[in-house]
Amino acid sequence: MTDVNPGLEPVRKALQDLSIEDNPAIVKQKSRDFFWYSPVLKKQLDRVTGDLVVTPRTEDEVIRVLKACFEHDVPVTVRGAGTGNYGQAMPLAGGVVLNLAELNKIKEIGPGRVVCEAGALISAIDDATRPGGQELRLHPSTYRTATIGGFIAGGSGGIGSIRWGGLRDLGNVISARVITMEAEPRILDMTGADLAKVLHAYGTNGVITEVEMPLTAAYDWVDVIAGFDTFMDAARFADALGMQDGILLKELGVISAPIPHDYFLRHRKYLRPDQSVCVMMVAPFAMPALAAFAEHRKADLVYRADTAEADEKKGLPPVFELSWNHTTLRGLRVDSTITYLQILYPYPDQMKKVDAMTKLFGDELPGHLEFVRFDGNVTCFGLPVVRYTSDERLEEIIRLHEEAGCPVFNPHRYTLEEGGMKQTDEQQLAFKRESDPKGLLNPGKMIAWDDPDFDFSADGPFLFQGLR
Amino acid sequence: MTDVNPGLEPVRKALQDLSIEDNPAIVKQKSRDFFWYSPVLKKQLDRVTGDLVVTPRTEDEVIRVLKACFEHDVPVTVRGAGTGNYGQAMPLAGGVVLNLAELNKIKEIGPGRVVCEAGALISAIDDATRPGGQELRLHPSTYRTATIGGFIAGGSGGIGSIRWGGLRDLGNVISARVITMEAEPRILDMTGADLAKVLHAYGTNGVITEVEMPLTAAYDWVDVIAGFDTFMDAARFADALGMQDGILLKELGVISAPIPHDYFLRHRKYLRPDQSVCVMMVAPFAMPALAAFAEHRKADLVYRADTAEADEKKGLPPVFELSWNHTTLRGLRVDSTITYLQILYPYPDQMKKVDAMTKLFGDELPGHLEFVRFDGNVTCFGLPVVRYTSDERLEEIIRLHEEAGCPVFNPHRYTLEEGGMKQTDEQQLAFKRESDPKGLLNPGKMIAWDDPDFDFSADGPFLFQGLR
């Protein structure tokens, strides 16, 4: 690093009684997320690091950090557990990494709701609410390590979305406390439609310190795996199962052969190499209905946790750790050259589109679907494994999907726009003008702020000047 | 009654230690349901009565009744609380009315499930499960009086169907204990796909004595009423709200002006005569999201229980008693000449079809929609008020709906087929052959049993010979 930010020293001094880390190796480690799932981001972001990691323990300490950094023009990038895959928490312009891991109190639990600080682990929230028979509606596959604030600021949905839709849907976050990046930081309580200003904004326009989340009934979800001769058989089974309003599921995913056998090492004994699977989390009392549905559709339940021996279950990860981006993670452990995509197959033609893409790409993109409710309908995202050969081919694969009417949420881009809807979120931009007038929060992630005239249809990604 | 069934006396003798009622006035009262919502059924069924009412207190007593009646060829019509509208519980051939009201024990409550006897009141089940934070998924608007067995054998869905679909959906009933009508009655435990044999079979092929039902999280649901200038504005609001996966609702109905003002007497103060309404039951923690959604859609929340004064709420019925067939009931109390229909507006054209029917019939059929999940999609049933003029016009109204692609579940017919899908349910018929070889259970309700060649396309209803 050659251009040392002159504000760093005064910031360090102002915050000297806080928990501050400046050991470069540790700071670099705390500046990373799971961007390296993407060979493209790996090249672009591998050297990115902050200058200091500050770990506040209270909201007052958060405010002190923001105030000091505002005064001295030091960028601040908020971090939960760093389990994002889009470089969400990577400090492109250096400065302070604001690590919220210790702002993690669970403050209040009521019927259908929990209030907790942003750094609370998602699994810790469930541990606190389960004795009362409640749990969070939604969680990522990184359930055991991710924070609730990181999920809300950087994620969109996951396990539970087959029932509840995504985080962006009204009602899936009740309220959030947001601190602005100003000379005198304001504390805003956001609810209803206002939440869209800060959800999935990567912390570019405010620091979420506390959230109120809806809870739902907690059950001892039964892990189930069904095996199929073809990927499309598995996909059609899941597509029909997702439409069963009475069968309570928390997860419904489909993974094409040979991925399950090749990458799910501890489940391999249940699977043939040529078998595609549907993975499910099923409410215990829904198992008779699920079994009836599977029998009717001639699906072979190769594993069900409710009838498995305790010994047998002991060595197995939960099926949610075979799903969403854990599918990719398990693949990367076996073959570090693969990567993935995130695709939406819009309702009502999702099966036709999945079939067409499966035929087009064959084993270059072994299929992986995650079924969700999306705008009130049941459809699926695709998170196929990509047998990566070059950036050019990856771009072509993306283009072919989009030309076929399957929008790609490109996980090989670190900006909100390119990883999302390829357009400016005017509401988030307008809020950033109010809440972060100096543009110090997570710089380089909102193209609309840095380059309002950026042409999304042009070739090539947005390149943030701060990427050193 | 002239043809006295010679089996009655031996049956009475065999069951003399049971609770038996033969006072004709009481027997007649216990032979009736809410068939009189229909002017057609009123004419046909008004004189229908059983001969004896037997009220067993245990399953063993049920078996004794069935055994005795089988031996002596006495018909048996099972009855819950008699809140059906299709004459489900009316004993067309006389004989024994098997009143299950005292077979009402709640036997077991676990996470997500309750086991109870068929005669348990739905509200009593919820009273027992609510202290543990659980309640039934679905209930009819006759929540306070209906039994769970009656709901399952004679109903199809209701409050809660916007979340869970209908009773016929796999998983919405976990299991049922069914007693057959044979020389030696068998006890069958039915689960999964088998349940379709006895659900909504009006007790024509077995006596359900016990059920296991799924439970869901119980909340203090907030009654909300939104007012609109037109029926279609209200309908489009509800149609969009039903697609909000994150806003937890238990009820979502729409009722056209002038019905709310004219018939909802205790809510009249909140309503203009020309106002159509959307009635909702909303989870308390979803109220900020609901309010945001309403504001965005410019809906006027004329009543919300969470901000109403205690005094104000005291005199008001719950909104579920403005919905489903309680809408009709409130209408009948004000104007006994009205009746109603039950229509399905199939997804995805439900709004277009509702609009077309609204334009076609105007104030002859003030609109009433109930939004539900149906085969995985959100759509609506219509239960319009019908300003009845003649049977012929009623038939014409039904025909016009069916010609427009809106199937009618005709509540002016007492048979399973005519009130349902206008076709034989082969599975229920096959099961009746096994379980009721003499055809003694609720005679006259399954056309396929009595007249396999009945022509559903011909004019006029099926006329059961036993109708005296």
What does the model show?
By secondary structure, chain A is of the alpha+beta class. Chain A has a domain at 222-403: Vanillyl-alcohol Oxidase, Chain A, domain 3. Chain A has helices spanning 8-14, 24-29, 39-45, 59-71, 122-129, 148-154, 161-164, 231-242, 259-263, 287-296, 310-314, 324-334, 350-361, 391-403, 416-419, 426-435, 447-450, and strands at 20-21, 52-54, 76-79, 96-99, 106-110, 113-117, 134-136, 175-179, 187-191, 207-217, 222-228, 249-255, 276-282, 300-304, 338-340, 343-345, 368-374, 377-382, 385-387. In chain A, the strands form 4 sheets. A 7-stranded antiparallel sheet of chain A has the order 14-11-13-12-17-18-16. In chain A, strands 5, 6, 7, 8, 9 and 10 form a 6-stranded antiparallel sheet that branches. Chain A has a 4-stranded mixed sheet with strand order 1-2-4-3. In chain A, a hairpin with a 2-residue loop joins β17 (368-374) and β18 (377-382). In chain A, α1 (8-14) packs antiparallel against α4 (59-71). The longest helix of chain A is centred in the N-terminal third of the chain and has 13 residues, at 59-71. At the A-B interface, β10 and α10 of A face β10 and α10 of B. Chains A, B: One of its GO terms (molecular function) is D-lactate dehydrogenase (NAD+) activity.
